[in-house]
Each structure stands twice: as structure tokens, then as C-alpha cells.
Specification:
By secondary structure, this protein is an alpha/beta fold. Helix content is 35%, strand content 19%. The chain has helices spanning 8-14, 21-31, 45-52, 116-120, 128-145, 165-177, 194-201, 218-224, 233-247, 265-278, 291-295, 303-315; strands at residues 61-69, 74-81, 86-93, 98-101, 105-107, 122-125, 152-155, 186-190, 208-212, 251-257, 281-286, 320-322. Helix 7 runs parallel beside helix 9. It is elongated. The N and C termini lie close together (11 Å).
């Protein structure tokens, strides 16, 4: 449970002995000012003290570790919940933007063969407030560091967002309405949960959709992404077309480049055949090393092969970019999140040290 699971009415019920406007002050303090209870200086001291000791408005997390990479531009937090589940959240600062990668589940049940989170197994769903609180932690850090305000949220951390649809969508709506993040700066990633993609197509907020594809034929994708056996590529592509037609938003295909597995000319040709009809953008991501992936003989494509794959896709009329790997040295890059708690460089986050 997180304070960000509480709306105005919930806060009003908790503060029913207070003047009615107090609930709005607390709500605005949490959601607009990103304040801790003790920082709500427009409240009487006695009420601030009371809020600081109310379990209902406590933080959902204890920060077990903070790892730093890329000369301070990438931060990874290992966060522990009150029931001892662990998740990871990654904040990345670029020259022109800041992006936080948040988790939607503790662990993951999808079992993709090259993903450390999948190897760790599934713990539980996160609540909408637990998802939101990761965003608030990142936004507060941007402010305290004097960086530009947090601009982008990607649900690409631990877990499959569309397998936790209700909590994820509630969090997305609150990010947009109460945290002031534009829908076009919110991205939901999925390995191809077809019913979830179709539900997204019916929503009004035009968020971005990223599909972790990694293979463009069912034989190979069955091996890399086991969910493909339930929702094969034909079904995934139909759902993507439905989403594109409904939202008008461009779809991205995520492609972890694996040496001699999906980085050959034939793979480029098959990928282009899927991407071109949807006008989809392709993100090429050199596979990041994980214990499970290495044990299965999976290694990332070298830079020359990734560049070749990009060039082949261009020849087929598909726009592809190569994602800059961030946080690899602290196991914070794509596919590496496992909540292992092995710190490289550790600093505490004071606001999270106690619930």
C-alpha cells in the first residue's frame, strides 16, 4: 500500500475530523508538490506530525540500495515493499530529457529466455500507488539534483504491464491528470499480451505502445518469448493494427539483437514485413548480458552487426534506431533487472529510509 493509492475522497475519509479543505491541501501536496508529509508546511504542525505517523500515508518502499552509473546520469534504486518484495526502478538523464523506467510487478511470469527478471520468477502485482510512487521518487530526485523536470515514463521495468492492466492504467491516468505528464510521454511496453493491447485501443489517452518482439517468425519467437505460443505473431500484429488505427500513435518494436539468432539478413527481411504495414519504428537493442542468457549461449550482437541490421531495415523501408545502452555496469539495462541487491555504488535515499 502506498499513499499514492489514495485519492481525494480517501484522504477526506482519513481526515474527517479536519476542515474539508485539508484533504485537498494534502492531496495537492502529495501529487502536485511531490512533498513528504513533514514538508506540508501549509498544514498545522500537529497535523503534519499526525500524517507522518499514519500507516495509510506512509511510503510503500524502503530503499535497500542506490546504484550509480554513467557518471551519475543513470541511477538504479532497489526498493523493498512492506511484505519484503523487491523491485527496481531506473532513472536516466539524457542531454535533452529525463526518463524513468518503472516496474509494474515484483518479478515476472513471462519467462523470456534472455531476461533476468523472468529468470527470477513472479512475486506479485504492484498496486497503482506503488507504480506511481516510483515516478514520484524519480521526479523528486530530478528536482533535488537541479535537473530538468522528469519528462518521460516508460513501463519497461520488472514485470509485464499488460498482465497488471487495471493498476497500470489507473497509474497512467493519475500520471497524466495529477502529476502533469503528457500522454505522449508515457510508454507501455508488452511482450504481446493481445487482450491488453486491445483494451489499450479502447482508451482515450494516446500513450505510446512498445512491443518487445525479438523475433519475426513464430518458430523462433516461441523459443525466445514463451507467451508467443499463446498469442502468436498474427494475433499480435492484428492487435497492433487495432491500436494504431484507434490511437493514431506510432508503435515501436523492441528488438534485442542476439548474435547469430535474430541479427541476420533473413531476420531483417522478416522484421520489415511486420513493421512496414504498421509504419512501426524499430528499436535495436544489443542484448545485455544476464546469467540466464549466457547459460543458454545467448550473446549480444557486436556493433558492426547491429549497424548492418539497421542498414538492412532501412533498405526495406523501415526506420530503425539503435538504443544507447545505459546502466549496464550496474545491471540496470534492458533485461537486466532482477532485484538482486548487489550494489556497485551505494547511496541512501533519505526520504525512503523509513516507512
Amino acid at each position: 500500500m502506498s499513499r499514492y493509492d489514495l485519492g481525494r475522497d480517501d484522504l477526506a475519509a482519513l481526515l474527517e475530523d479536519q476542515p474539508s479543505y485539508r484533504a485537498s491541501q494534502v492531496f495537492d501536496g502529495f501529487y502536485r508538490r511531490l512533498a513528504e508529509p513533514g514538508e506540508l508546511t501549509d498544514l498545522p504542525r500537529a497535523l503534519r506530525d499526525r500524517l507522518e505517523h499514519m500507516p495509510e500515508v506512509a511510503s510503500a518502499f524502503r530503499c535497500a540500495a542506490e546504484n550509480v552509473a554513467d557518471r551519475g546520469a543513470t541511477l538504479k534504486w532497489l526498493l523493498e515493499t512492506s511484505d519484503a518484495k523487491r523491485i527496481e526502478t531506473v532513472l536516466m538523464r539524457y542531454r535533452d530529457r529525463t526518463t524513468v523506467c518503472v516496474s509494474s510487478q515484483a518479478g515476472c511470469a513471462m519467462g523470456c529466455t534472455f531476461c533476468a527478471t523472468g529468470d527470477a520468477g513472479f512475486g506479485r502485482q504492484l498496486s497503482s500507488g506503488e507504480i506511481l510512487e516510483q515516478v514520484v521518487i524519480a521526479a523528486r530526485r530530478c528536482r533535488s539534483e537541479g535537473w530538468d523536470p522528469l519528462g518521460n515514463v516508460v513501463l519497461m521495468g520488472m514485470g509485464e504491464p499488460l498482465a497488471n492492466f487495471e493498476a497500470v492504467w489507473t497509474a497512467v491516468e493519475v500520471m497524466n491528470r495529477d502529476l502533469g505528464l503528457a500522454a505522449r510521454h508515457l510508454t507501455i511496453s508488452t511482450v504481446g499480451v493481445v487482450p491488453g493491447i486491445r483494451r489499450l485501443a479502447g482508451k482515450k489517452l494516446q500513450v505510446n505502445l512498445a512491443v518487445s518482439l525479438h523475433a519475426a517468425n513464430d518458430l523462433l519467437r516461441d523459443q525466445l518469448v514463451p507467451l508467443n505460443r499463446r498469442y502468436p505473431l498474427r494475433m499480435v500484429m492484428e492487435a497492433c493494427e487495432e491500436y494504431r488505427a484507434s490511437s493514431g500513435r506510432r508503435i515501436s518494436f523492441e528488438w534485442a539483437c542476439i548474435e547469430d539468432v535474430n541479427d541476420r539478413p533473413s531476420d531483417a527481411r522478416e522484421l520489415a514485413a511486420l513493421a512496414r504495414p504498421l509504419a512501426a519504428h524499430v528499436n535495436l537493442i544489443p542484448l545485455n548480458p544476464t546469467p540466464g542468457g549466457l547459460s543458454r549461449g545467448l550473446r549480444g550482437s557486436g556493433r558492426p552487426r547491429v549497424l548492418s541490421l539497421q542498414a538492412w531495415l532501412k533498405e526495406y523501408g523501415v526506420n530503425a534506431t539503435i538504443r544507447q545502452n545505459r546502466g549496464r555496469s550496474i545491471d540496470a539495462a534492458c533485461g537486466q533487472l532482477a532485484a538482486s541487491g548487489a550494489p556497485v555504488s551505494v547511496r541512501r535515499v533519505p526520504a525512503l529510509d523509513s516507512r
